[in-house]
UniProtKB/TrEMBL annotation:
Keyword Oxidoreductase: yes
Protein name: Dihydroorotate dehydrogenase
Molecular functions (GO terms): dihydroorotate dehydrogenase activity
Matching InterPro entries: Aldolase_TIM (IPR013785), DHO_dehydrogenase (IPR050074), Dihydroorotate_DH_1 (IPR024920), Dihydroorotate_DH_1_2 (IPR012135), Dihydroorotate_DH_cat (IPR005720), Dihydroorotate_DH_CS (IPR001295)
Reaction equations catalysed: (S)-dihydroorotate + A = orotate + AH2
Keyword Plastid recorded: no
Domain Dihydroorotate dehydrogenase catalytic, residue spans: 7-279
Lineage: superkingdom: Bacteria
Function as written in the Swiss-Prot or TrEMBL entry: Catalyzes the conversion of dihydroorotate to orotate.
EC number(s) from the headed UniProt entry: 1.3.-.-
UniProt: FMN binding residues: S20, K42, T43, N123, K160, G212, G238, G239, G260, S261
Location relative to the cell: Cytoplasm
Length: 297
């Protein structure tokens, strides 16, 4: 029974991918990352970033609100320290890159091309950095960016979109038509949580990115809509807490499955979902996991 998938030219042993910014090195105390399809790095910028003020994550009644602010060591230390750590752990790594201008993204893409990285993810849908959603609000800017990055980088190019837009199918189509190989859906949603006793927002910057079980139906709809119309490679995720949730994304058209804040509830969840897929296709005599992708379309 085959659980392997292909995203653009990137071949993975199974569809399970840890989402960017939802884990750190401590995850290896709980799981063997080599057993997953891949992990996505925290979003890397040209220069180091300290991130947003603490606390930058709060638990809500139905999920989590985060304001990480792209905290990362910068591209230089990423290659000298972070990437070697994950490679030593046996992980297949997708590198998430972020910038505040076209030029930032292009420089990062050129570096990733020079280092022969197998896949990069353009984070153009982050809620908690300045102008983090600007590319989703300006189609011409999104087209311009993807075209430029495509010229700079030749391997698997993933564009991470949010579902809190007027037409996610249109943005996905624009991305694919201008050089993207894979669409990642979805990012977190803008949210606000307050302490009504102190009469203050719980996050210092007030607004954060909302994730958790409550967003699953919204994320699932986005994946279903995009796959139904475009039949493209999708990394789908949002609100996944167990194998059943992950299977739903596969049935709606996702090739890869992104595991995010559900890890805060159970750090072993990703490996459990890998096991769940193996058992599911064996019990149901499914020779290849891709045979059930998009079954409900």
């Amino acid at each position: 029974m085959n659980t392997s998938i292909k995203l653009g030219s990137l071949k993975l042993k199974n569809p399970i991918i840890l989402a960017s910014g939802t884990f750190d090195r401590n995850i290896i105390k709980h799981i063997e990352v080599k057993n997953l399809g891949a992990i996505t790095s925290k979003t890397i910028t040209l220069e180091p970033r300290t991130g947003n003020p603490l606390p930058n994550i709060v638990k809500t009644k139905y999920g989590f609100l985060n304001s990480n602010g792209w905290k990362n060591p910068g591209i230089e230390k990423y290659f000298s320290e972070e990437l070697p750590f994950w490679k030593d752990a046996g992980a297949e790594v997708i590198t998430s890159i972020g910038g505040f201008s076209d030029q930032d993204y292009i420089k990062l893409a050129k570096i990733c091309e020079k280092e022969s990285l197998p896949a990069i993810e353009l984070n153009v849908s982050c809620v908690n950095v300045h102008k983090g959603l600007s590319y989703l609000a300006d189609k011409k800017a999104l087209i311009r960016l993807i075209k430029k990055v495509r010229k700079a980088y030749t391997k698997t190019l993933i564009v991470k979109l949010g579902a809190n837009v007027t037409d996610v199918v249109d943005l996905a189509k624009i991305s694919l038509n201008n050089g993207a190989d894979v669409i990642s859906l979805t990012n977190t949603f803008p949210g606000l949580e307050i302490d009504n006793k102190k009469m203050v927002a719980k996050l210092p910057l007030k607004i954060g990115g909302y994730s958790g079980p409550a967003i699953k139906p919204i994320a699932l709809l986005a994946v279903w809509q995009v796959y139904k119309q475009l039949k493209c490679d999708i990394i789908g995720g949002g609100g996944i807490t167990d194998f059943s949730d992950a299977l739903d994304f596969t049935l709606c058209g996702a090739t890869g499955i992104s595991i995010g804040s559900g890890q805060y509830l159970d750090p072993k969840m990703a490996e459990k979902i890998v096991d769940g897929f193996r058992k599911y296709i064996t019990i149901n005599n499914i020779k290849n996991i891709n045979k059930i992708k998009g079954k409900i379309i």
